[in-house]
Amino acid sequence: MDAPAFVPDVWAWICNLPPFSQWKTSSVSLCICTSTTKQPSMFLSINKNSTSHITLSIVTNFHVPVYLWTSSPIYLSNKMQQTLDEPELIQLFVDIINWVLRYGPNKKYTFRLGAIQTKENFKNVFNLACLTLVFVVCIYEAAPHDLRRGCVDALKVQLTSSNAKEFSKYLVRILGANLEEEWMRTLNLATTNWISEIMSSSSSFRIPSVLFSYAVSAIGLWKVQLYCPVIAMNMEESSSLNQDERLAFSLKYQHVEGVVQLAYKTTLRENWVDVEIKVDNVRLVITGYHKEKCSNYLI
């Protein structure tokens, strides 16, 4: 059996849950991350307090459970249903996507999923979306500092891994172009707030690389799409001794969206193939999280 692309494997955990009638309590939990201190751990919890629906929650285990986030009700097809099937998993996936988008700067976007089958890469796309939600909730909701720091660091490793980058391609295809931009703005705004918090308490904090990029190809064209929060980019030292604090603050809450397009042509020779490549378009857009695009650079 292949190793899971993400740990914990939320999809496998949900699919392998015992029938509801065998649950000893009204909820079952999966540990997301643990703290190295006496601070509590963080869990995903599926709760079935009704015969008609279930909910998914992100919980920290203080002396009593503290719920940081709870999904919308995921309705079962009938009261006799004993497991979560494909329709419920798709309901949950859509709800997770929409909750992530609600943490973004633009609240008007809603994700509606067309026809999809839970095959091939969907389980990894589901895991990616779920861990992304946990990442955002860790940053914004009132988790204890030590636990939040440890969980965010652990999730960052997973969300910037080669597996995550590969399955992000499938996720953005499902989202579509408009929601792709909003998704990345949501993640980069959360990342900006997280980096700002750490920098305010640690002058020696090394900003991590959080550039996200992916490539797609078509006949005669290669395209690279990239996103990066400005706060995570290396800054060149200014020759001016006077720094504009307002400009610095403004830039901190911007991110860069970039597109690199390469046109190519192949010619079959007798013993080789000629490949001609030229730069078709390079576009960089500096976008404020709470405003419209402020700068657009075409090369």
Automatic annotation (TrEMBL):
Protein name, please? Neuronal PAS domain protein
